[in-house]
Write a sequence for this structure.
């Protein structure tokens, strides 16, 4: 957690647009990251923006390589062992973690009934594990990295646990939501030491983000 | 030929060893100069001794000896020293007893996270000194230790371990709702904290107040702000913190102490004042401590107690980072 301007971890990908919008709203100049530069670090007059995959944000913030950051609640839940302060629900990037299976097919229920165990493909093994454990069901989790919708179509698993925003991807792959697990939105997080030692700066940013988020 | 060692353990080679020895010598000199004699205790204790510490700090490595006794590797030095004082000092003169140590502790690690299963701590325990004075003395020793380590910029967070337990009791939040609120506090999840407080039915305004309370950290002004938020639990905690802080000011050692009403320690035995140590060059906590007035009772002595422990590897890393910065 070195000195100098505050370092904010910015998620690339689906959350990037709205993250830059809310940063604009709190007075951070985002013209550079909006350009077509291929750099990963942008020095703005207000703070340093460090861009990265959303799932890397907790890693950078926990270690103090970034003082604060923005990422999805799904990422924070999946990496719940990372120690970061979760300060603000930013409200955007809303999506739902769901259990989905093939439309009009009772393979999921049948596996549960006849085998006592469902096979679930997911990119979120820890969220899935906690969910099935808390609902008293036994599952075999298959972790995949890419398009998880593929798995039940070719017989890798009876269902999937995945993040759904509009539901279109599910529909196009003839999958339907069976259970909703948790709602996820973008969150503002802070490093534990930065939260203590740069309290004034972080409190001010927190207050402005809270206001912008409502 | 590579012969691996277990994850979370490591070999120390001469360059590092030389620096570590210097650091250890500097710390022990500070401790001894203030009357904290160094002690050593076995790394292996009876499991029932270490079990006096509840919570996540509890020792995890257990095994049987040749006669079937359950043994454990110590997870810290506070519990062994409490045992030692009760056993060896109970009839050996008047408290307070001042002891220090440089010792290895053993805790479980999460895989691939650079966490150490075996780590070195340096610390002191002050047993049998009156509450406020004891806390102040321990903070003074901690400051001297940080100076001796060359960490002039390090900051000590000072909080209250009982605040939220008492506050929730006062608000009538009990049972599962209470545990789930405390879990959010422990994981620093303020979004979840507010939601759970709302779910517990204490009303939006009080929920908001609790969340604000966790964010109060700074100089003595935060005590005033906290009092403004009201309640008996807050009154008790702020009164006790302000007594300690005023005494620190009187002795001229309050500058690097940050009062923090959001501070929590995950070891079960703390009560009253708690401490955490940060250095701006490092993203993680260097060490911590506080009062553990209830612990000695488990060993049959009714004595108040306080202490701190620094993780030496982290202090060493901070020294390196501070030197790079200079």
């Amino acid at each position: 957690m070195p000195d100098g301007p505050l370092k904010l971890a910015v998620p690339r990908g689906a959350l990037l647009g709205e993250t830059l919008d809310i940063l604009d709203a709190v007075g951070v100049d985002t013209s550079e990251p909006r350009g077509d530069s291929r750099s990963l670090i942008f020095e703005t007059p207000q703070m340093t923006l460090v861009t990265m995959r959303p799932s890397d944000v907790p890693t950078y913030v926990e270690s103090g390589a970034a003082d604060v950051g923005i990422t999805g609640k799904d990422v924070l839940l999946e990496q719940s062992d990372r120690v970061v302060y979760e300060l603000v629900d930013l409200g955007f990037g809303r999506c739902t973690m769901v259990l989905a299976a093939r439309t009009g097919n009772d393979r999921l229920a049948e596996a549960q009934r006849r085998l006592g165990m469902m096979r679930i493909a997911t990119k979120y093994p820890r969220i899935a594990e906690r969910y099935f454990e808390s609902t008293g069901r036994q599952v075999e989790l298959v972790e995949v990295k890419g398009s998880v919708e593929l798995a039940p179509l070719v017989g890798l698993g009876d269902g999937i646990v995945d993040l759904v925003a509009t539901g279109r991807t599910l529909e196009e792959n003839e999958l339907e939501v069976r259970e909703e697990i948790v709602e996820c939105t973008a969150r503002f997080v802070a490093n534990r030491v930065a939260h203590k030692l740069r309290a004034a700066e972080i409190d001010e940013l927190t207050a402005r983000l809270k206001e912008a988020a409502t | 030929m590579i012969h691996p060692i277990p994850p979370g353990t490591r070999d120390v080679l001469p360059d590092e060893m030389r620096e570590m020895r210097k650091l250890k010598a500097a710390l022990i000199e500070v401790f001894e100069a203030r009357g904290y004699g160094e002690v050593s205790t076995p790394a292996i204790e009876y499991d029932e001794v270490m079990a006096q510490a509840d919570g996540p700090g509890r020792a995890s490595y257990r095994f049987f000896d040749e006669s079937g006794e359950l043994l454990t590797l110590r997870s810290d030095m506070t519990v062994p020293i409490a045992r030692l004082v009760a056993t060896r000092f109970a009839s050996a003169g008047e408290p307070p007893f001042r002891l220090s140590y440089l010792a290895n502790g053993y805790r479980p690690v999460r895989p691939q996270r650079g966490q150490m299963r075996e780590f070195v701590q340096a610390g002191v325990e002050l047993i049998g000194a009156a509450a406020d004075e004891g806390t102040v003395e321990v903070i003074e020793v901690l400051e001297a230790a940080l100076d001796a380590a060359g960490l002039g910029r390090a900051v000590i967070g000072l909080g209250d371990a009982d605040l939220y337990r008492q506050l929730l009791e006062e608000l009538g939040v009990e049972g599962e709702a209470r545990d789930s609120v405390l879990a959010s506090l422990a994981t620093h999840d303020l979004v979840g904290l507010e939601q759970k407080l709302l779910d517990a039915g204490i009303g939006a305004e009080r929920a908001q107040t609790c969340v604000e309370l966790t964010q109060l950290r700074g100089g003595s002004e935060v005590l005033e702000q906290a009092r403004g938020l009201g309640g008996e639990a807050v009154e008790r905690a702020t009164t006790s913190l302000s007594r300690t802080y005023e005494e620190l000011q009187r002795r001229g050692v309050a500058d690097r102490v940050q009062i923090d009403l959001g501070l929590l320690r995950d070891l079960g035995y703390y009560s009253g004042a708690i401490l955490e140590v940060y250095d701006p060059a490092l993203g993680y906590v260097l060490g911590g401590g506080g009062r553990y007035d209830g612990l000695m009772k488990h060993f049959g002595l009714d004595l108040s107690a306080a202490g701190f422990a620094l993780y030496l590897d982290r202090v060493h890393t901070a020294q390196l980072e501070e030197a790079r910065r200079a």
Q: What stands out?
A: The radius of gyration of chain A is 19 Å. The longest strand of chain A covers residues 175-184.
